[in-house]
Design goal:
The complex is a heterodimer.
Chain A: H1 14-33, H2 39-58, E1 63-65, E2 70-72, H3 74-101, H4 107-124, H5 128-146, H6 153-184, H7 189-197, H8 204-220, H9 229-236, H10 239-262, H11 269-292, H12 297-318, H13 321-347, E3 349-350, E4 353-354, H14 364-367, H15 369-383, H16 389-403, H17 407-433, H18 446-460, H19 462-481
Antiparallel strand pairs in A: 1-2, 3-4
Chain B: H1 2-18, H2 20-52, E1 57-67, E2 70-78, H3 80-103, H4 110-128, H5 133-151, H6 158-189, H7 194-204, E3 208-211, E4 214-217, H8 218-233, H9 242-245, H10 251-261, H11 264-272, H12 274-277, H13 281-302, H14 308-328, H15 332-359, H16 377-391, H17 397-411, H18 415-443, H19 451-456, H20 462-486, H21 491-495, H22 507-511, H23 516-539, H24 543-550, H25 552-559, H26 564-595, H27 597-614, H28 619-640
Antiparallel strand pairs in B: 1-2, 3-4
Classes of the chains: A mainly alpha, B mainly alpha.
């Protein structure tokens, strides 16, 4: 094995390489400029995401790189576009916040760039080692982000909790990987797939390893019973960071989950399906019920995201092409509803200070009619009311579950979404029917308004775009499962 | 023309009901009365052409229901029976309409009242012209609805609402029987068309039908079911309780219900279905017994009532009993004859009573009347004519029809016929008694009302008195004018096919040959009754109190109407109330609400609170839950997966 002749194929990873370089350059830029201004590095990071996005969509077909550790295919591209969108939006969201709090620092966009790089690596991982590397890269950056307001007790507490529990989950994941390697003799996804497809390829050790792996991944998407960190971290972390947590890492982790389970472990469907059904039901039900008693809107969004991950897992549990298509559509609708909602939360200020209680929304329909309308759209969409975006996500995953014969799962899902509708509708009721004690500040930043408007339009008009999105999602599913 | 008779009242009702605001009170009165007057004049022409001229035909209006072998058309069947009924209904109803113009002149919602009256009349006309059972049922139910609306016309009075609901509910019981009877007919004959049923009835005699698990003679079962319907509408013993309470409606409504448009429906139904009943002898016996019992029962109660309208109401009930036992002994023409004469004199009595009430500032209790005959001589005279006709005094209408009924019952030479005859004689005695009790208590003796009321006593306006005069003419003349056609020599030619009497059952022919004492008996007991009333209320006024004290249990029994209301209240109302409460508290509140909305929301709230408490904020709890999760999932795997 000669060092020169075996230079690995790197072209499929152009976007990631670009992003890595851009992140380092941005770090240099920040260090040498030395200012605490956020806007310039922030917009540069957004520009970097844009270029990376172009590089991502410029590729076609399926290629691997780095001796098969890295793969790029339609599925990865779909997920990467969503991740880049989510990251870019969350940077734009943060400008107003950090400027007002006078805590702007250039590390923030840099960390997001590195976290995003980790996410892109995750969705392109084609080997257990690559998987772990991407995951840790993402997680380390996120731990820091959670506690980026190091002068705030809640922010540091959130970061610490996230770090400790994240480390525990990483440990489980690694332990699972080592078990799998020990029993299968390979870490490559392709190799694992060939081992399992062979007669008698499974063993108890392998299955236990798989369970550990699933648990580690479930932590990242905050599925029950590995969700406990979510409400605390969502509440404690600065709101723009929460917005990021709610979107990009969820997409990345879920995409990774889908790739691992339907790729190398696809032949073990019967084994992991039960676990996923359980986790999915538990997430949907807990997300629906626990959210009902929340008074803080960020905690409520945490439970809401737990529930949403449960719905997305319904599609994965179905384990068929329709299911994976459904998951991708679900994620597409999910990021816009969440970005829009968090933009509104960031716009909730009274006397210049952020407020986070549900009761602060009362009378919003009178003081901010457009914002109230947009929030109503997001809430209806999250509750799954047609013809908004959220409805289609739920529709496709439930259809897939029915196709796969998981009737119980589909029924529980529909029932949970009924319970969930309660707290979404309650927010609308508060906005439209409760008397305001003290109105919120009239001025909402221009970037926030643009994001709110854009997400609301996309959520409202998802119906029009559903056909191309469905085609792309289906291509992604096919690239993963093979036609 | 034949359609116009039926539909003119409907048109009048629609205009007055929906356009009442536009055309005003006066307009509504003119429209509805005008429609009724035209309709009754046309009815007279129709009577001439159909009954006297001997034409029988059907006017098709349009197809209503066609489903499989089931077919029902809107069609007007015109034969003698229909023509007689239409004439009676339109003439009496016209008189009531005109009378109402005066009687209701102080009411706030005149158009509504006039519209209801017309709708009532339309439904009754629909009923009597029906060509099939379904259309008949439509009219039947229309009458029920209209009576509900009219009895509860003063909806601000709780007692009026209660009476309206009672009338409707009690009628539902009968309607249920009627509906079952229609189903039975369709099952047996595969049609609801009257002509087909009548033609097929003889050959179906003797077939059996399974009803409630029992095999029985098909025609008997159907006839009895139809009769149950008739019992409800015609207030026969058992289902009569609504009729006296219906007095809560305005007096013209009482007149209409009692004389023309409601209670006669049952009599008409049985007469109309005579080709069926003739082949169901057991059903006929049931009809006879129920009718005779009702005649007796209602007369006894009528003797003890103090409300002027209630006395007349029980007298209606009693007279309907006469009609039914006449039907039961196959004297259908006699029953219809009595129906017609009764319509005139009963409307007269009611409207006269209304005139009295009007004069006495809405006083209805006879104990607060008396001594006013000189002040309202016209009303007094009218009341006399009505009572003479009711008591069956010769030359007045009731004499001809009632005697014919009693003679037919005697002449039928059956056990139930004898029973009916003696019951009828007893009822005739009491009828005469309570009629004169009413006259004496109302018009004679010392005035018992307050001076203020007495001072205001006045004769009613002309618009109320003229209908009385017309009805009085009917009460005097309709008897001897109709005798030849209805029950005399021209009977067969007059009725032709509209009523069927088997040769063996022809009790009317037999009635012409009964002993003399049978013919004289009703008159004799009538005179005795009148004399008793004079004795007890005019010459020896202390006697009634003495008797009431002496025979107190009997008096109370009669005063409380044989405790029927109390019995029904205990037996049905209380029970259904209990069932309702059981379903409401046990079924709805406990089970459906408990496990449904309330239960689910409570469980949801509970679960939510628990789920919220799971979140302690301690990292080691969180880590513990993760480890538990891993261990649980791995165990699950090792146990079930793998």
């Amino acid at each position: 094995m000669n060092a020169v002749t075996s230079l690995p194929e790197m072209a499929p990873a152009t976007a990631e390489i670009f992003l890595a370089v851009a992140g380092i350059a941005l770090l240099m830029f920040g260090v040498f400029r030395g200012s605490n201004s956020l806007r310039t590095p922030g917009w540069l990071a957004v520009l970097a995401f844009l270029v990376a996005g172009i590089l991502v969509v410029a590729r076609t077909g399926t290629d691997d790189a780095f001796f098969g550790l890295f793969i790029t295919d339609a599925f990865a591209r779909f997920a990467k576009v969503l991740i880049l969108l989510g990251s870019a939006f969350s940077i734009v969201l943060s400008f107003g916040y950090f400027e007002r709090e006078r805590k702007g620092r250039f590390e923030y966009p840099v960390l997001i760039v590195f976290a995003t790089l980790g996410m892109l690596m995750m969705v392109s991982a084609n080997d257990l080692i690559a998987l772990y590397m991407g995951l840790e890269m993402q997680s380390l950056a996120l731990y820091v982000l959670a506690s980026i307001r190091r002068d705030s007790l809640r922010s540091t507490e959130a970061g610490l909790k996230y770090f400790v529990l994240g480390a525990l989950s990483s440990g489980m994941l690694l332990y699972g990987c080592s078990l799998i390697y020990g029993f299968a003799g390979t870490t490559s996804f392709a190799g694992l797939a060939s081992v399992f497809s062979a007669e008698g390829g499974t063993s108890v050790g392998l299955v236990v390893g798989l369970v550990f792996l699933i648990c580690g991944l479930a932590f990242k998407i905050s599925a029950v019973p590995f969700h406990m960190w979510t409400p605390d971290v969502y509440e404690g972390a600065p709101t723009p960071v929460t917005a990021l947590f709610a979107v990009a890492p969820k997409v990345a982790a879920l995409a990774l989950f889908v790739r691992v389970l339907s790729g190398p472990f696809g032949d073990l469907l019967d084994s992991w399906q039960q676990i996923l059904v359980f986790v999915s039901i538990a997430s949907m039900v807990l997300g629906a019920f626990a959210a009902m008693v929340q008074t803080n809107i960020k905690r409520l969004m945490a439970y809401s995201s737990i529930g949403h991950m449960g719905y997305a897992l319904v599609g994965l549990a179905a384990g068929n092409e329709a299911g994976i298509t459904g998951v991708m559509i679900y994620l597409s609708s999910y990021i816009f509803m969440n970005i829009g909602t968090f933009a509104i939360i960031l716009g909730m200020r009274r006397d210049g200070r952020l407020v986070e209680n549900l009761s602060d929304l009362s009378g919003l329909s009178k003081s901010h009619p457009m914002m109230a309308f947009a929030l109503m759209v997001f809430m209806f969409s999250m509750a799954g009311i047609p013809p908004l975006a959220g409805f289609f996500g739920k529709w496709y995953v439930f259809m897939a579950a029915v196709q796969a014969g998981l009737f119980g799962l589909a029924v529980v899902g529909v029932l949970a979404s009924v319970v969930g509708a309660f707290y979404y509708l309650r927010i609308i009721k508060i906005m439209y029917f409760d008397e305001a004690t003290q109105p919120l500040d009239a001025r909402v930043g221009g970037d926030l308004r643009a994001i709110i408007f854009g997400s609301a339009v996309i959520t409202l008009l998802f119906l029009i775009a559903i056909s191309p999105i469905y085609d792309k999602a289906q291509q992604a599913a096919i690239s993963l499962l093979g036609a | 023309m034949y359609s116009a008779i039926v539909f003119l009242p409907l048109v009048g009702a629609l205009i007055a009901g929906f356009g009442g605001r536009v055309i005003g009170d006066r307009g509504a009165q003119i429209v509805t009365c005008g429609a009724m007057i035209v309709s009754s004049v046309l009815a007279l022409v129709a009577f001439w052409e159909v009954a006297i001229g001997g034409r029988t035909f059907t006017v098709d209006v349009l197809t209503w229901i066609a489903s499989g072998s089931f077919e029902a058309n809107w069609a007007l069947r015109w034969d003698t029976l229909t023509a007689v009924m239409v004439l009676v209904v339109t003439v009496v109803s016209t008189m009531v309409h005109v009378y109402s113009v005066g009687y209701m002149s102080h009411d706030a919602s005149i158009p509504r009242f006039m519209a209801y009256l017309s709708i009532f009349t339309f439904a009754m006309l629909m009923l009597v012209t029906a060509d099939n059972l379904v259309q008949l049922f439509f009219g039947w139910e229309g009458v029920g609805v209209a009576s509900y609306l009219l009895i509860g016309f003063w909806f601000h009075k709780p007692s009026a609402n209660a009476a309206a609901i009672k009338a409707f509910v009690v009628n539902r019981v009968g309607d249920f029987g009627f509906a079952l009877g229609i189903f039975g007919c369709f099952m047996l004959f595969d049609t609801v068309s009257l002509d087909v049923i009548f033609a097929a009835a003889p050959e179906k005699a003797g077939t059996t039908l399974n009803f409630l698990g029992m095999q029985g003679d098909a025609l008997t079962i159907i006839a009895i079911l139809l009769f149950i319907g008739a019992m409800g509408k015609s207030a026969q013993l058992g289902l009569h309780t609504w009729l006296p309470d219906a007095m809560e409606g305005p007096t013209p409504v009482s007149a209409l219900i009692h004389a023309a448009t409601m209670v006669t429906a049952g009599v008409f139904l049985v007469a109309r279905m005579s080709p069926l009943f003739e082949y169901a002898p057991i059903a006929l016996q049931v009809v006879t017994i129920v009718g005779a019992a009702t005649a007796f029962f209602a007369a006894t109660v009528g003797m003890c009532q103090n409300d002027i309208k209630r006395v007349i109401a029980y007298s209606t009930c009693s007279q309907l009993g006469y009609m039914f036992f006449a039907l039961g002994v196959s004297a259908y023409p006699a029953a219809i004859f009595h129906l017609m004469t009764h319509a005139f004199f009963k409307a007269l009595l009611f409207l006269s009573a209304g005139s009295v009430i009007h004069a006495l500032s809405d006083e209805q209790d006879m104990r607060n009347m008396g001594g006013i005959w000189k002040k309202i001589p016209f009303t007094y005279a009218m009341m006399w004519i009505g009572s003479l006709a009711l008591a069956g005094v010769p030359l007045f209408a009731g004499f001809y029809s009632k005697d014919m009924i009693l003679e037919s019952a005697y002449g039928s030479h059956t056990g139930v016929g004898q029973f009916a005859f003696w019951m009828g004689i007893a009822a005739a005695l009491m009828t005469a008694f309570y009629s004169w009790r009413l006259i004496i208590m109302t018009f004679h003796g010392t005035p018992r009302m307050s001076d203020e009321v007495l001072h205001h006593v006045h004769e009613s306006p002309k618009v109320m008195l003229i209908p009385l005069a017309f009805l009085a003419a009917g009460a005097v003349l309709s008897g001897w004018a109709g005798y030849e056609w209805f029950v005399g020599e021209g009977m067969a030619e007059f009725w032709r096919e509209s009523i069927k009497i088997l040769p063996d059952n022809n009790s009317i022919a037999a009635a012409h040959h009964v002993p003399f004492w049978v013919k004289a008996a009703p008159l004799v007991v009538g005179v005795i009754g009148i004399g008793l009333a004079y004795l007890m209320y005019m010459f020896r006024p202390h006697l009634p109190g003495l008797l009431a004290a002496r025979f107190r249990p009997i008096y109370l029994f009669l005063l409380n109407k044989w405790y029927f209301d109390e019995l029904y209240d205990w037996l049905f109302v209380k029970r259904s109330w209990q069932v309702g409460v059981a379903f409401w508290q046990g079924g709805d509140r406990a089970i459906i609400d408990g496990f449904g909305p309330d239960g689910v929301s409570a469980v949801a709230r509970n679960l939510a609170a628990r789920a919220g408490r799971l979140q302690t904020g301690y990292v080691y709890h969180y880590a513990f839950s993760m480890l538990i999760g891993v261990v649980a999932l791995v165990s699950w795997y090792l146990a079930f997966g793998g």
